[in-house]
Amino acid sequence: MTELKDSAQTALARWREVAASGDFSKVGEIARKDVIFRSPVVYKPYKGREALTLVLTTVIKVFEDFTYHRQFVSEDGLSVALEFSAHVGGKELKGADFIKFGEDGMIEEFEVMIRPASGLMALGQAMGAKLEGKLDILKGGDA
Length: 143
Hints:
This protein is an alpha+beta fold. The protein has a single domain (6-140), classed as Nuclear Transport Factor 2, Chain: A, CATH 3.10.450. The protein is built from 4 helices and 6 strands; from the N terminus they run H-E-E-H-E-E-E-E-H-H. It has helices at residues 6-21, 49-62, 117-131, 135-140; strands spanning 31-38, 46-47, 64-73, 79-88, 91-101, 107-115. This is SnoaL-like domain-containing protein. Residues 13-109 form the SnoaL-like domain. It holds the Pfam family SnoaL_2. InterPro entries: NTF2-like_dom_sf (IPR032710), SnoaL-like (IPR037401). It comes from Hyphococcus luteus.
């Protein structure tokens, strides 16, 4: 079984603390300034800590019963896939967070995949409503 490198393991432990607390405003402490975030809703990635923080602080308000289940580690020990489940507006969904850490333990890339389509559509609608007026942050980032 592949193990995470120490730097990534430390960062993942911090990520789990942030996720458990629901206070994603602290994600910037473990993400590179030029972090890349890939949303399951849009094709073009978002760049920068500010965009990542905005999306994560918003999505945790939309998700109900968010729970992580399984964890998978890449062969190089610098990436992890975290399986999760949640509800949005009565729709059940399952997904995975794919997090790539740098050698320094900082998050370089964060990608989310979600199924089924009905859950993803409910999430997209709820996020769109909450992010209205904040899209400039997502388009520009702070990279």
